[in-house]
Amino acid sequence: MQAVGMIAEFNPFHSGHAFALAKARNLTHADVVVVVMSGNYVQRGEPAIFDKWVRAEAALTHGADIVIELPVTGAVQAADQFAQAGVSALAALHVSALAFGTEHPELDYLDLARQLVATDITDPGFADYTQTYATQLNAAYAKVAGITQTDPNFMLGLSYAKAVLALQVPMQLYPFGRQGVGHDDQKIKANLASASAVRQHLREGEPVTGIVPADLISVYAEQPQYGWSQFFPWLKYRLQTADLAELRQVATMAEGLEYRFTQQIDGAHDMTEFLHRVKSKRYTYARLRRLALAITLNMTTAAVTKARHLPQLHVLGFTPTGRQYLRTVKHHLAYPLLTRVSADMLAPYGVLAMTHRADRLITAIGGVEQNYGRPPLM
Amino acid sequence: MQAVGMIAEFNPFHSGHAFALAKARNLTHADVVVVVMSGNYVQRGEPAIFDKWVRAEAALTHGADIVIELPVTGAVQAADQFAQAGVSALAALHVSALAFGTEHPELDYLDLARQLVATDITDPGFADYTQTYATQLNAAYAKVAGITQTDPNFMLGLSYAKAVLALQVPMQLYPFGRQGVGHDDQKIKANLASASAVRQHLREGEPVTGIVPADLISVYAEQPQYGWSQFFPWLKYRLQTADLAELRQVATMAEGLEYRFTQQIDGAHDMTEFLHRVKSKRYTYARLRRLALAITLNMTTAAVTKARHLPQLHVLGFTPTGRQYLRTVKHHLAYPLLTRVSADMLAPYGVLAMTHRADRLITAIGGVEQNYGRPPLM
């Protein structure tokens, strides 16, 4: 069976995602579409608006055949680490084609990545404290490979290509335009509202008709929503009581931010206010938000390292076609395939300990168990 | 000037406390009554119902001349450690008389303590896992010194005596009956409702007329109240996200309780329910509540050790007589006398870092700054 992979967040799943899944299938003539999807926390540093099961189900009923969880240790990371976690999961599942939407489908991403790798500036640790890391990275890219684009999906595509090179996995890239082509351009474009706009509509209780597949509208209306408004009190408490040494153990902590965070938290009443207080020229909002989330989840460097050394493929669901594919590959997988989560895995030293730690907060808010004993969606 | 000391919590200050302060003064013919009072957290493992400034002010207007804060690292401890923290603060202030109410004022506490120390059973580390530490201690006391009393104030008096011996400080003990004597027995007895009963009345909005000095009734009515209902969500969050290794660093943690606590928290909706779930024959409710509070405050063994090595005398307030006394002793004090708290002291490595950590939560709830820049009450 021919498989194509996608790395996604579906936060939440909307019409543009359905279009992308169909595009990936058509472009590669694949029999099966395998998605590695962020679990309950996403790359921009916040809980996904709906839990991972709701989002996986939406994907499975709109074009995906298999949904595998991208664990929090891989999802709440800068683009390069996020991409590596996704690519390595797909490769472990013997998927050798990766499709992704981008503003620039005409470029050769692997070739660009090779130029960057050859000049060794993929992770330069820039020392200019007056600019964000992203700004400096873009400048270096422009210098080395003539890359002057900074569109987010283009940058993510480049991260996928770099991950393929770094991991040395056989993976062909299939970039595609994010807008539709042909006669119904207009209509599809209208449907391609960003996930961010969909979230805003949902949070404010406004209708999402036309931008979300019709059958999902009533599903979304009934689901508990998650966001920083619920997590901020925990962040505040944690910053007020944590030891500096403990904060330094949190993944993605950078020198000095532990002081800045603990000093600025007292007067902040919500996440927006807090981020404004800690913002500097050196760090983007996304970077700071991810760090704040890592603190709230107590996602330590040790937990991230452990997850990298003991990768798991937690199956959230599959279609009959997806099941068939899993049967063909399941005996020669690089990582364990988890179809039912046991108490052992969730225990403090279990392989899913960090996922459990993070997901307990989702359960505490929404009352829905996220791991223990939950079978894959079929 | 002749000084008498008391170690107290005033949670909250009531008529019985006014009686005790007067009794201490009369019994010792003291010019000045020095109180070492628990700060915002008390020995039974919870926040005091009113903050330390409200309670200090009540004491200063009803018989105390000086109120010094017993820091959280000394207050939220078993009786022996609580007593040591209090006795050492009084001794540092050159107070050599300690008065305390007890069910058995006729006994010689120092003599009893000497018998216990001589037989080396003051901290026996009992190995019977089917009984609480307190029960086993009482049995040992009965065997060694014929002590069959287990009344709480008697036991605390014994802890004071043991602290005096352990610290080798010159301190005379003045036990007195907790009930009044003479013709107005009846009336005083009626006024001696326990602090626990007063708290219950206050929490339920019931009148405290007659059991609290009349002028305090309106004061109490206007103050924010603190309790486990506000702290429980923090405990729950912390237990759901803490690393076991982090929990093991919490002061008074005992082998195995970190598992029990993290396992039992998910289904608990309030502190009472949680305590029922974790209760065993081995530990008293007070012991478990203190541990839960230490976890919530992130009061680590390191923080307690540091506080013991760098003791401070934080002055919450004084009367003119109290001020006169402080003037006579301030140049030869064993510990620093803090009359105004600076930002340095509250900083992460400052001498009041743990106090600040704990008190930030009080400020987060009640909106009243507890340390920075607050002068002593006069």
From TrEMBL, chains A, B:
GO terms classed as biological process: tRNA modification
Amino acids binding ATP: 7-20, 101, 153, 178
GO molecular-function term, one example from the UniProt record: ATP binding
Its EC number(s): 6.3.4.-
Keyword Ligase carried by entry: yes
Stored Gene3D superfamilies: HUPs
Enzyme class of the recorded protein, top EC level: ligase
Family the entry assigns: Belongs to the TmcAL family.
Job description of the protein: Catalyzes the formation of N(4)-acetylcytidine (ac(4)C) at the wobble position of elongator tRNA(Met), using acetate and ATP as substrates. First activates an acetate ion to form acetyladenylate (Ac-AMP) and then transfers the acetyl group to tRNA to form ac(4)C34.
Protein name (record): tRNA(Met) cytidine acetate ligase
Organism expressing this protein natively: Lacticaseibacillus zeae subsp. silagei
Lineage: Bacteria, Bacillati, Bacillota, Bacilli, Lactobacillales
